[in-house]
Design brief:
The protein is built from 12 helices and 14 strands. The protein is α/β, with parallel strands linked by helices and 369 residues long.
């Protein structure tokens, strides 16, 4: 049996009746687009985060894109973020005509090095975009102070941090807006694509609802400014609404898996995840580090264990973004991490038997390096 970084089948087996009931409820409702399930999920998701509004959209990339537009970011603007992230973070910035400006990350926790941000701010900077990566939050207090001093918007990328907390504050509640992905692998995942933006700013919320619906206001076919077709569908909204009630349970399951890894691998030369000060980690992925990463991954294939790398190519080195002018060595920590980090299987329904298989094989491979 092949063991992979993520598998939804065990979760589906347990939750199958509820998920199929959610599908049947939507199909029996007579309304398949922007109906009661979307409205209900938006209300529940906003309440979970202690904010005034949530707007469901079709995927996490468009959540970022529409949030940037709703905040007034556009052509000629600059957005400060990181290169150690999934490419969609930067694709969204590019898609609104803005320019991504990168700072490096901390070697200890792989999160944005906020101390580098001020030097990256120029007269064209419009927004700071921290990425709450791998399940924990960027150090938000100094970032918020910088934003206030320079008059900048803060957009949190929460695609990997559903339910994570920073000094008691939940991810997504600390900026002007926050974007979420509900891709199936996420801590809160749908059974297909989905996303949302949360905010307590009434104008941003108004902009988002217009932008996700072609740019239309109240009446169909009346476009005020061009927008998109970026609606969260009713089926995923109903499934997500039900799974939201289990989110804290999913997080507890992930933390239990993380504890078993730490207990079993703490005496090896793997660098295990560290929570930054004040953070409550939700372990979207369990990222470890080793200078012989590629050899380890290759060796584990003989045990039918297929691991993942998050991420093997920093965004600033990708062909699509070479025009930004970041030479090799410009983000040294990010570039070093790309050669050393990899992810072990992590999901709340991961059985102890499968986890022990990974631990045993990994320890054997490490002994033979």
């Amino acid at each position: 049996m092949v063991t992979r970084v993520w598998d939804y089948l065990a979760e589906y087996e347990v939750e199958r009746d509820d998920i199929l009931d959610a599908v049947d409820r939507v199909f029996s409702s007579g309304q398949l687009v922007l109906g009661e399930s979307v409205r209900g999920f938006e209300e529940d998701f906003a309440a979970y985060h202690g904010v005034r509004h949530a707007v469901g959209v079709d995927n996490g990339t468009n959540a970022l894109k529409l949030a940037l537009q709703a905040l007034g970011v556009g052509p000629g603007d600059e957005v400060v973020t990181v290169s150690n992230t999934a490419a969609p973070t930067v694709v969204a910035i590019d898609s609104v005509g803005a320019t991504p400006v990168f700072v490096d990350v901390h070697a200890e926790n792989y999160l944005m090095d906020v101390a580098q941000v001020e030097a990256a701010i120029t007269p064209r900077t419009r927004c700071l975009l921290p990425v709450h990566l791998y399940g924990q939050c960027v150090d938000m207090e100094p970032l918020q102070r910088l934003a206030e001093r320079h008059g900048l918007a803060v957009l949190e990328d929460c695609a990997q941090a559903h339910g994570a907390r920073h000094h008691g504050r939940i991810a997504g509640s600390m900026g002007d807006a926050a974007a979420f992905s509900f891709y199936p692998t996420k801590v809160l995942g749908a059974y297909g694509d989905g996303g949302a933006v949360i905010t307590s700013d009434d104008q941003v919320e108004h902009n988002l609802r217009r932008l996700r619906y072609y740019g239309m206001e109240e009446r169909y076919y009346v476009v005020s400014t061009p927008g998109h077709n970026s609606r969260l569908d009713e089926v995923h909204a109903e499934i997500l609404r039900r799974k939201l009630t289990r989110l804290d349970r999913y997080t507890a399951g992930r933390r239990a898996v993380a504890r078993r890894y730490e207990e079993a691998l703490g005496d090896t030369d793997l660098v295990l995840p560290r929570s930054a000060p004040g953070n409550e980690h939700v372990y979207y992925v369990y990222v470890v580090r080793h200078p012989k990463r590629d050899a380890i991954i290759e060796a584990l294939k003989t045990y039918d264990i297929m691991l993942n790398i998050s991420y093997p190519w920093p965004v600033h080195t990708m062909d699509g973004f070479r025009h930004l002018g970041y030479d090799k060595g410009s983000l040294p920590v990010t570039e070093e991490l790309a050669h050393e980090i990899f992810s072990l299987p992590m999901y709340p329904s991961l059985s102890e038997e499968l986890q022990d298989k990974v631990i045993s094989a990994l320890r054997e491979v490490l002994r033979t390096l």
